[in-house]
């Protein structure tokens, strides 16, 4: 049901200065007013979209639950385009739960995850791409990711998708008018007339697709595993990237027994750094679990920082780790190669460069003949800027970082655009083969519907349920 009144705590779990309970639906005002007591005993509905001071009480016992500010907001000028009430109380979990229970006792229903945003979509305030951008905006880990999410929320992605749909619809209309109304002497459109229009639509779709891989980097980031034998400085490297002491560092080998994951900012791209336990044979059951988790982290990574201790000669353990990384499909990537999900690069780091160098580069080059070796010292920060530059150059393959152009950040949108492009390609092929225009129209309609999945106009109910179920409750 989408016409009942729903309620939920809209602020994150935990203790805070302020907590918000959100109520939406046709009976939102009638639900909250009996709970809201104002100084002087006023009972009239307060002005819309203005905070009003008072107390929330338990209607049964008349116990004061909290001192609050309440905003009563009239439809349609609200987030859901329904009547909305937001109760701002103190941010203690017990306080908020008690207020929420009082609201639910008045007849409201507990909101499902993402149900407020789903109502905003169903009531036409947001399209589906904009609704998804709400969660992207909340979860942004860098300023560049935040700006891209805001672009999508403001409708820039939807606008370009709609332009392509409008072009396709124009072609469909020409074809179907000639098929459906032959008695009106509507001339049959010719291939030379339709081809440029289809090409124009395809150009618009390809323009959106061209930045999709880059957009996904800003949204999802790069999983970067720091791999090496024990005590080569992996945890120190993690701390240096983060500019904070996140991982425990000691001279004792094997300090890290589990994976530690944190996010650093690589020129606007979230770099999910995974500090791993040293990969080494061991009889210790705890260390063995840590080593296995290190292997799992490496296998799921987009890029590996393979760390060696430059102050010690190459060891058998170093060779073992190199062999394992190579067996996982990682390779040294030359600067002129384009980074893709299938070419997972390894960057070779020679750490502890502030000490006397005893590692023979010639030996290491036998293991990694095309390797670019980066000397770093986490003690003096030497080489760390160069390492970031190498990551940007090799992982991003020299592509320009964030620009003001619209970038697709969602895998779902990317797949819908790819399907649309395939159908446009098929319709173009049908024209060239001089097949009946019905065949051309079928593929054009499929392309039109694929693009509609981005904005939600042709999205199935199952897809909507899946998307909004991933939202937090209260949003």
From TrEMBL:
K(+) binds at residues 231, 250, 252, 255. It comes from the Bacteria. (6S)-5-formyl-5,6,7,8-tetrahydrofolate binds at residues 22, 86, 125, 475. GO terms for molecular function: GTP binding; GTPase activity; identical protein binding; metal ion binding. Keywords: Cytoplasm, GTP-binding, Hydrolase, Magnesium, Metal-binding, Nucleotide-binding, Potassium, tRNA processing. Mg(2+) binds at residues 235, 256. The keyword Metal-binding applies. InterPro entries: G_TrmE, GTP-bd, GTP-bd_TrmE_N, GTPase_MnmE, MnmE_dom2, MnmE_helical, P-loop_NTPase, Small_GTP-bd. Exhibits a very high intrinsic GTPase hydrolysis rate. Involved in the addition of a carboxymethylaminomethyl (cmnm) group at the wobble position (U34) of certain tRNAs, forming tRNA-cmnm(5)s(2)U34. Homodimer. Heterotetramer of two MnmE and two MnmG subunits. PANTHER family: TRNA MODIFICATION GTPASE GTPBP3 (PTHR42714), TRNA MODIFICATION GTPASE GTPBP3, MITOCHONDRIAL (PTHR42714:SF2). HAMAP family: GTPase_MnmE. Belongs to the TRAFAC class TrmE-Era-EngA-EngB-Septin-like GTPase superfamily. TrmE GTPase family. This is tRNA modification GTPase MnmE.
């Amino acid at each position: 049901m989408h016409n009942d009144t729903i309620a939920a705590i809209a602020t994150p779990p935990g203790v805070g200065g302020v907590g918000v309970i959100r109520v939406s639906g046709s009976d939102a005002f009638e639900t909250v007013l009996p709970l809201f007591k104002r100084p002087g005993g006023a009972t009239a509905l307060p002005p819309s979209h203005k905070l009003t001071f008072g107390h929330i009480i338990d209607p049964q016992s008349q116990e004061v639950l909290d001192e609050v500010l309440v905003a009563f907001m009239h439809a349609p000028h609200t987030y859901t385009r329904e009547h909305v009430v937001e109760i701002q109380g103190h941010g203690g979990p017990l306080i908020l739960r008690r207020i929420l229970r009082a609201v639910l006792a008045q007849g409201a229903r507990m909101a499902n995850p993402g149900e407020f945003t789903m109502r905003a979509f169903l009531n036409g305030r947001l399209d589906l791409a904009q609704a998804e951008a709400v969660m992207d905006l909340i979860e942004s880990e860098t300023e560049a990711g935040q700006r891209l999410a805001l672009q999508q929320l403001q409708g820039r992605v939807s606008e370009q998708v709609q332009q392509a749909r409008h072009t396709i619809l124009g072609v469909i209309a020409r074809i179907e008018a000639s098929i459906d109304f032959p008695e009106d002497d509507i001339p049959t459109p010719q291939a030379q007339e339709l081809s440029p229009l289809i090409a124009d639509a395809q150009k618009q779709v390809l323009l959106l697709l061209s930045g999709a891989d880059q957009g996904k980097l800003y949204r999802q980031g790069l999983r970067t595993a720091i791999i090496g034998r024990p005590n080569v400085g992996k945890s120190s490297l993690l701390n240096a990237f983060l500019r904070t002491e996140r991982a425990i560092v000691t001279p004792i080998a094997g300090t890290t027994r589990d994976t530690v994951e944190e996010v650093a900012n690589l020129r606007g791209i979230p770099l999910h750094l995974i500090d791993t336990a040293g990969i080494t044979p061991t009889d210790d059951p705890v260390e063995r679990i840590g080593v296995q988790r290190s292997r799992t982290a490496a296998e799921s990574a987009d890029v590996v920082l393979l760390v060696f201790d430059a102050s010690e000669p190459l060891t058998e353990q170093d060779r073992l780790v190199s062999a394992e990384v190579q067996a996982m499909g990682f390779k040294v990537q030359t600067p002129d190669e384009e980074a893709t999900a299938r070419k997972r690069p390894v960057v070779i780091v020679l750490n502890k460069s502030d000490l006397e160098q005893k590692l023979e580069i010639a030996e290491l080059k036998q293991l990694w003949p095309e390797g670019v070796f980066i000397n770093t010292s986490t003690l003096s920060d030497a080489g760390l800027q160069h390492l970031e530059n190498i990551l940007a150059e090799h992982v991003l393959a020299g592509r320009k970082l964030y620009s003001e152009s619209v970038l697709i950040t969602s895998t779902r949108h990317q797949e819908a655009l790819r399907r649309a492009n395939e159908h446009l390609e098929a319709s173009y092929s049908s024209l060239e083969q001089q097949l009946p225009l019905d065949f051309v129209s079928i593929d054009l309609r499929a392309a039109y519907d694929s693009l509609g999945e981005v904005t939600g106009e042709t999205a199935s109910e199952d897809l909507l349920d899946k998307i909004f179920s991933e939202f937090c409750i209260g949003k």
